[in-house]
Amino acid sequence: MNAVEHRANQSPALLSDRSPGRSLRILGISPGAIESLDSTTGYGSIVVSLFGGLAEQHRVTLRSVRLKGVLHYLNLLRSFTLQRPAWRRYSGLNPWVFRVRSYLAHRAVEQLGDNVDLVMQWQGLNAPFVGKPLKPYAIYTDYTTKLHDAHHYPTYRNSFYRNEQEREVYYRLEGEAYRQACRIFTYNELVRRSMTKDYGVDPERVVTVGVGVCLEPIDPAVEKRYDSRQIVFIGKDSAFIRKGVPNLLAGFALVREVIPDAQLLLIGLSPDRVLNQPGVVNLGFIKDRQRLKQILENAALYAMTPLIDPSPGAVRE
Fold it and tell me: Pick from 307, 302, 299: which is nearest to 246 by CA?
């Protein structure tokens, strides 16, 4: 996260008339629930580290644009399809939900008024404005929709849009959010190139800063053993299909035929997400970093089986 902090602090486009060393009043926008930003790994831990790092030098106020109550259920009704995985995916990526998230972000900026110098948005799932930006803003992301759609993932991609017209509307909304940003920080060069090539963003405004790992490294003095016959998977409910968990479970059933005492430890999934299967242990969400480290130290194998993953933190972790 230091690279993000450094570039945000040094960029004249973001600081405008502010003198060096003076802290900014930053509004942090997250598409997820900010009351649960206590993840130890993956997506959530990056959000924690990003805004936590900025808060060391600046005054940061967090707001979530996650839909709740009536808006949440209205989106589910509008997105309904008989295929539950497709329903889940479409409810998170459609023009209507993009506009509603943008409205919630706009309202947050409006409410804080002069108490905001800069909006720092995590991901490009909405714009932080409706009509025109009220404040300068930056986006930090690992993904663009056109980058995803440039590849053909038949088990994953087909349900994002109802039709071609809706696809183009979503592209337009997303592109407008990118092109009006003062800076876009990306995980990697692939996303940076998509910003400039697919959305026409000024190359001077897009900076690849990478992404860090939010776990302490395992002590090299620890003698690693591989006889535990334990396999570890870390993921979340919302990425159940994208992370290939059904394929993992099917493959593990074959493993058990050869190694009857093998175990598959699942971390991050809700208790009812996986049906009873011999050898599969669902540990749920783990907040304790030391416990997570211990599990990784003891495991013989880490399983990662995504259908698509633009910049998998699991590789680095």
Answer: 307
Separation between Cα atoms, residue 298 and residue 161, nearest integer Å = 43
pLDDT confidence of residue 131: 93
| H or E segment to which residue 234 belongs | strand 230-234
Strand partners of residue 267: 234, 284
**Closest among 160, 117, 158 to 27, alpha carbons compared:** 117
Least trusted range by pLDDT, from 12-16, 68-72, 114-118: 12-16
Please list the alpha-helical segments (H only) found in the chain: 2-10, 12-15, 42-55, 69-78, 84-92, 95-112, 145-149, 164-179, 189-199, 245-258, 289-298, 313-316
Question: How confident is residue 6, by pLDDT bands cut at 50, 70 and 90?
Answer: very low
H-helix or E-strand spanning residue 29: strand 25-30
- Residues in Cβ contact with 277 at an 8 Å cutoff, skipping those fewer than 6 apart: 249, 252, 253
